[in-house]
Amino acid sequence: MFDTLAGFGIRLLWHPSLSEESAQEARHIIDDCVNGTTRLDILCLEGAVLRGPHGSGGFHKTTGGDPVMTLIEKLAGVASHTVAVGSCAAFGGVTSAGSNPADACGLQFEGDSPGGLLGQEFRDSSGLPVINIAGCPTHPNWVIESLAALASGMLNTQSLDTYQRPRLYADHLVHHGCTRNEFYEFKASAHKSSDLGCLMENLGCKGTQAHADCNIRLWNGEGSCVRGGYTCIACTEPGFEDPGHPFAETPKLGGIPIGLPIDMPKAWFVALASLSKSATPKRVRENAVADHQVVIPATKRARKK
Amino acid sequence: MKRLIVGPFNRVEGDLEVSLDVANGRVQSAYVNSPMYRGFEQILKDKYPLDALVYVPRICGICSVAQSAASAQALAHAMGLQSPENGRLTANLTLGAENIADHLSHFYLFFMPDFARDFYQGRSWFANAQARFKSVRGSATAEILPARAKFMHLMGYLAGKWPHTLSLQPGGSSRPIEVAEQIRLSIILTEFRSFLERSLFGDKLENVASLDSEAALLAWMSSRNSSADLPHFLSIAYALELHKLGRATDRFMSYGAYHVGEDNLFASGLWENDKLQALDLSAIREDVSHSWMEGETALAPVDGVTKPQPDKTGAYSWCKAPRLAGQVVETGALARQVVAGHPLLRDLVARHGGNVTARVVARLLEVALVVPEMENWVRQLRPGEAFCFPESKLEDASGIGLVEAARGSLGHWLEVRQGKIYNYQIIAPTTWNFSPRDAAGTPGALEQALVGVQIEENNEGAPVAVQHVVRSFDPCMVCTVH
């Protein structure tokens, strides 16, 4: 990782988990960035901005007693680029869920509303807004690739989507590459945790609506949420933390899931779903509600030439 | 008397600041401040009970599975639900993988780089320590990061992803393992074992696990090729006499770790005055006298209240002060192994009390103990049999989930009323270790461990001995306050 960063000319000035410098040494590094002694090319923020209580920022203070949100504003003011790493820093995320006790927000968004700490108009010196590498957690390669693209001058306003997420991962849907695709095609649905079937109809899966390439690039080498047997909760989307229904239950109206696949006309979806349900092969129907293949795919005899 | 404020502490998880009263070059008293409050317990109020599985792992990026496991157990307890054997094994495996990965991150990335500081220039061991453990640039970092990443492929199979998995369910695991995957899990563990035996220990895991006294440890150290990292650490630790540094209460608590049948692989209990006692959970109280929290009396977690009071006089941390029967206890790998009865750690503690060296040795010993168990758990999986039993709906119920995270005892107390979460209280390992003072004025474990530590005048900005003591606990500050 460090070699990769170095290869793109990125030198880590300070990272809270990795750098040697602690306490006063760390404060000097940060102060030197604020006062311009050290050039700060990229500011990365992890975690939401905590504005509470009562707008004071007192829920998160630096050593010395200043609110961390004030320090973030100063650093974003001198940095050439500002990057929100994860959905909390981007939109507020889980820290802003429920009663939002810490009055959390993102750097340039509060949920899906532009604004946040730095305000809708904020632009860095190259004209870019905050780059939101959203995800909860974010994928390490989304971070490394975005930083590499920035350092190479390959990231411009065209590289970001509506929510300012790098399109290098946000142009895909979690559905792309889902290993449950055959169950999806036939609407052969899981009913409970550990079932192999499609998670969309009953278990709340938002993979057909969530922007991310989780099933193309995979996590920890081999996985993704849906491959781990549970539903996509759309953690790259603003506001995912308060879905208005239990995460693992699909809200429906008249038996039809309310959240339909993105770009899919409702009438066609309903028609195709009912057609494919009636055409479901026995193998797919039975495996959908089992936790291992109870019927394995048949073998075709080779045709004589 | 001089007041030093040491912060922000890096190479710990989350935000930490320590205030020290120093006289005659030594710490007279210490005050630990957790300077960040997010309010997860308030966020969880009125949420659907099963949605706790989404929120609680997001308290922390490194103890994420531990939080999931505690929550799944609290929910299962409330439902009266037991998971199938495969579910138990995968829960052990995922928690084991996180704990072992955390122990390695702590050793290589958080703890050892302090020996490569210029402060130690001139010591006979300095050049080797710097080449191996310098933060970011040392040869260990380049080796450990890929080895750890490969090991965490276990999580890809067992949990979909790490951190923030949802595979740990009250009824077991949502991720059934196929026969073909079982062998891949074994291969990952085999490769990881060879990394550990080559680089970390320079010896078989079983030989390390069977060291049974300080004398045996020292004999082993001198017989080893010191290019392996544990012998390397030991030679520095004994040169600096770190076994005389960082003694706290010598009262050690563990909830017990890794379910094996009806028992735990590592037993639960309280170790005090060289005796093991059963753990009385009903004696846990959270004091808020020095926390920026509302409340007069110390409450049991089941009745716990979390209401910030930022302008409270006399308060100096967002952390509450948990006490067991009114007493400060230490939790973590050392406590876990002392309670479980490992002879090496019991001997180290009997000779010197809890200390920096013993805490680090306990973590690495645990790596040697748990990885062979993980190999067994993988072999015991039965693909084709159930991995998860369906959960039931909760209307009015309560449950407790207790696990041992890498950093020690983690407890979740859940109460559900009318189908929604009414109260959710969490006491994390570092809440115990890094608590502020209680109503009696008794300092928390770290606050006690820092008293007497020497501060050199040229090192006041970031005193290195203070850093050794603080990091020896492997604190996780984001879990501490949550």
List keywords for this structure.
heterodimer; A: 305 residues; alpha/beta; Rossmann fold; Cytochrome-c3 Hydrogenase, Chain A, domain 2; 3-stranded parallel β-sheet; 9 strands; 8% strand; elongated; B: 482 residues; alpha+beta; Cytochrome-c3 Hydrogenase, chain B; 3-stranded antiparallel β-sheet; 18 helices; 16% strand
Characterize the largest beta sheet of chain A: strand count, sense, and whether it forms a barrel: 3 strands, parallel
Number of strands of chain A: 9
Strand residues, percent of chain A: 5-15%
Gross CATH architecture of the largest domain in chain A:
3-Layer(aba) Sandwich
What topology emerges from the helices and strands here?
The complex is a heterodimer of chains A (305) and B (482).
Chain A: H1 2-7, H2 23-34, E1 42-46, E2 49-50, H3 68-78, E3 81-85, H4 87-91, E4 104-105, E5 109-110, E6 113-114, E7 131-133, H5 140-151, H6 167-170, H7 181-185, H8 214-217, E8 252-253, E9 256-257, H9 266-278, H10 282-288
Parallel strand pairs in A: 1-3, 3-7
Antiparallel strand pairs in A: 2-4, 5-6, 8-9
Chain B: E1 2-6, E2 17-23, E3 26-33, H1 40-44, H2 52-55, H3 64-79, H4 85-111, H5 126-133, H6 139-151, H7 153-159, E4 168-169, E5 172-173, H8 179-201, H9 205-209, H10 214-223, H11 229-239, E6 252-254, E7 257-260, E8 263-266, E9 269-272, E10 275-277, E11 284-287, E12 321-324, H12 333-340, H13 343-352, H14 356-380, E13 397-405, E14 408-417, E15 420-427, H15 429-433, H16 445-450, H17 464-472, H18 477-481
Antiparallel strand pairs in B: 1-2, 2-3, 4-5, 6-9, 7-8, 9-10, 11-12, 13-14, 14-15
Helix pairs in contact in B: 3-4, 4-6, 4-7, 4-14, 6-8, 8-14, 10-11, 12-13
